[in-house]
Amino acid sequence: MTAFRWRAQARSGRARAGFLDTAHGTVATPTFMPVGTVGTVKAMTMDAVRSTGAGIVLGNTYHLMLRPGAERVRALGGLHRFMDWPGPILTDSGGFQVMSLGPLRKLDADGVTFRSHIDGSKHRLTPERSTDIQHALDATISMCFDECPALPAPPEVIAQSMRMSMRWAERCRTAFVARPGYAQYGIIQGGTEPDLRAESVRALTDIGFEGYAIGGLAVGEGQELMFSTLDVTVGLIPDDAPRYLMGVGTPDDLLGAVERGVDMFDCVMPTRAGRTARAYTERGTLNLRNARHATDSRPISPHCDCLACSRHSRAYLHHLFRANEILGPMLLTWHNLAYYQRLMRGIRAAIVDGTLPEHAAHLRAQWAMEDWSPDEMPFPDIPPVP
Ligand SMILES: [Zn+2]
């Protein structure tokens, strides 16, 4: 049986390249996890997700507990079999979604009672119940059930919330059934207050988890505060544990966080953008609904081997979105996930080669440029990212 562990391969400053060994296979880090909210990465077949190079996907406890229900997924062989993803799956705890329900939820010291956004039925999540559900789903990596206050908030509100999350983390750990190759991550809270972040790391490392997540960021504080919070938080996490920055982010966020020592990411941005005609490229984003793409015979990116870029023009994708054809979101989600995976592979390769500073400067210079002009075809100045 494979033991769950993260092992380093190379370092550049605080950035790390490594491998995450799990019961469901090994993942190269740093890694981006596509979000498979209800047991599907929206608009993608699992073969398409695999083809982008994704090594691990995310599932949502809140959505799956409501529909089809955790016990049904367990009876059907677990989430891996149910969604045809034999690789590692990380499930969130449901906390973030439940806390976002606003008037539909009631928080107490023991857990949260809430009404389903689907049919209004009443449900309850506690640290124990969330952990049990993630076990029933057969999550490779389970997350602690926690509370994340919206920022900005007064320090005393953030402190109180963080301390409750730390008490809940202890209950999650007690409820977790340890198995070889499986993991549970504690979630560091504390807003943008360095002292509270440090207190949170101490509380979680005293309990002891296989990995640590940085929660409560990318909730409106801005990139500068997010990076300064990572600067004071990531170095406190044990060096041999994987570090996961939850719900982040833009390509620029990912690069800056990897430089600060983060190994794992998830975000709805590439998939959500793919459904709204927004394409990620080496030179920023394009809105394919824009009329300027209507007669453009070039691919979205000459460096992308996804189905959209290898077979179709910007003009065709523009047409699909204008005609509200379902193939538009399918092709563009594929492209955006391929871009995110290529971005992470390039960053990882640069850490291994010892060229991260140069690679990062190159990426940032490209993002600062405008989209390619038609006479730049075939884009001789941009080396393909491996
Ligand atoms: Zn593409």
Q: What class would the helix/strand composition place it in?
A: alpha/beta
For the biggest β-sheet, the strand order reads: 4-14-13-12-11-10-6-5
Q: How many helix segments?
A: 15
CATH topology of the largest domain: TIM Barrel
Named once each, the bound ligands are:
zinc ion
Rg, Cα atoms, Å: 21 Å
At the fourth level of CATH, the homologous superfamily of the largest domain is: Queuine tRNA-ribosyltransferase-like
What is the domain total for the residues?
2
Pathway: tRNA modification; tRNA-queuosine biosynthesis
Keywords: Glycosyltransferase, Metal-binding, Queuosine biosynthesis, Transferase, tRNA processing, Zinc
Subunit structure: Homodimer. Within each dimer, one monomer is responsible for RNA recognition and catalysis, while the other monomer binds to the replacement base PreQ1.
Cofactor: Zn(2+)
Explain what you see.
It is a single chain. By secondary structure, this protein is of the alpha/beta class. The chain folds into 2 domains: 5-266, TIM Barrel (Alpha-Beta Barrel); 274-368, no CATH class. 40% of the residues lie in helices and 18% in strands. The chain has 15 helices and 16 strands. It has helices at residues 46-51, 61-66, 70-75, 79-83, 95-99, 127-137, 155-175, 194-207, 223-233, 251-259, 269-275, 307-311, 314-322, 327-353, 356-368, and strands at residues 5-12, 15-22, 25-29, 31-33, 57-59, 89-91, 105-107, 112-115, 122-125, 141-143, 183-188, 211-214, 243-245, 264-266, 278-281, 284-287. Strands 4-14-13-12-11-10-6-5 form an 8-stranded parallel beta sheet. It has a 3-stranded antiparallel beta sheet with strand order 1-2-3. A hairpin with a 6-residue loop joins strand 8 and strand 9. Helix 7 runs parallel beside helix 8 and helix 11 (269-275) packs antiparallel against helix 14. The two termini are 32 Å apart. Mean pLDDT is 94; it is low at 377-386. Residues 300-301, 304, 306, 308-309, 335, 338 line the site of zinc ion. Residues 247-253, 271-275 are annotated as: RNA binding. InterPro entries: ArchSynthase1/Queuine_TRR, TGT, TGT-like_sf, tRNA_ribo_trans-like. Keywords: Glycosyltransferase, Metal-binding, Queuosine biosynthesis, Transferase, tRNA processing, Zinc. One of its GO terms (molecular function) is tRNA-guanosine(34) queuine transglycosylase activity. Belongs to the queuine tRNA-ribosyltransferase family.
